[in-house]
Amino acid sequence: MIKQSGDGTATVSVIGAGSWGTTLANLLAEKGIALKLWSRNKEVAEAIRKRKENTLYLPGIRLSSRLQATTSLQDCGGADIIVIAVPTPYFRETSQKLAGCSLKTGCIAVSAAKGLEEGTYKTMTQAIAEEFPRHTKICALSGPNIAEEVIRNIPTATVIGGKDKASLERVKHVFETSSFKVYTHDDVIGVEVCGAVKNITALAIGICDALHLGDNAKGAIITLGLTEMAKVGRIFGAKRATCYGLAGVGDLVATCSSRFSRNRLVGEMLGQGKNLEEIQKTMHGMIAEGIKTAKAIHSLSLKHKIDLPLTREVFSVFYERKPIKEAISDLLRVI
What we know:
This protein has two domains: 3-186, NAD(P)-binding Rossmann-like Domain (Rossmann fold, 3-Layer(aba) Sandwich), CATH 3.40.50; 189-332, N-(1-d-carboxylethyl)-l-norvaline Dehydrogenase, domain 2 (Orthogonal Bundle). It has 15 helices and ten strands. The chain has helices spanning 19-31, 42-51, 91-99, 124-131, 147-150, 165-175, 188-210, 215-236, 240-243, 246-257, 262-271, 276-282, 289-304, 309-319, 324-332; strands at 3-4, 8-9, 11-15, 34-38, 69-70, 81-84, 108-111, 137-142, 156-162, 180-185. Helix 3 (91-99) packs parallel to helix 4 (124-131), helix 8 runs antiparallel to helix 10 (246-257) and helix 14 (309-319) runs antiparallel to helix 15 (324-332). The longest helix has 23 residues, at 188-210.
């Protein structure tokens, strides 16, 4: 077990057994942390328990023998640290259910989702704050963290953002390994906004890859995406420096360049002529957060009257069925 400074042994619950939730749970299990991994999918939980493999989201990866999976949220409420790694469309509902699971006084809730709540534009830590008891310490984990690399112990850096320094240091101590470096950050809203907005750019990069537009065009689009990230960050009161750190440009580059990136992959499939229904079938239940985020950020840009041409064109392609070549042509006029 990993001993915490002055507070005994930490117990952790990871909520959500997708690729990222499973990866975080496996990292902790390998450290000897006592934990439960919750899955809404009985088949996934059963495969983890019996075969030590998440056959749906991380096929072929051998998981720790210490990893325990459950389908009962009630099993997870009493942990010192609760990591919520479910997609944003289900985040608030899951948080509401967790709030009724006899949460431990002073527990730490960690958001590991990257997106904004549709309709409210709220971040996931804001959703937790509204659903969990007031005594809960809340933070967000984000950064250039491709699950398929972290699970293989390939060197990775991440950011844990929050307002309570003691909680941040505790989470850092629990999660950090020789290959998973954790940095603390006091700009939690900036960390979350960057993690959400970068997915819009990844969708556009996927389309570029499908159309073989080349690296020069992708460089220009990534630059425009970073500019729009900073503009959106200002609306939320994020620090400009956050956009140019690990949670911002670091995550943006990783998501736009990785062959494992779901958002880049969805953009690529769209650029190949597939419709959203066909794409969703190939995703096996995984969600590309950028699709919903593009809608939320586009609506936000209209409300605040800020010009976000990349977001506008991605929104138009996905929600207004604008021809991709026309969207690219319109985008080229502004970059």
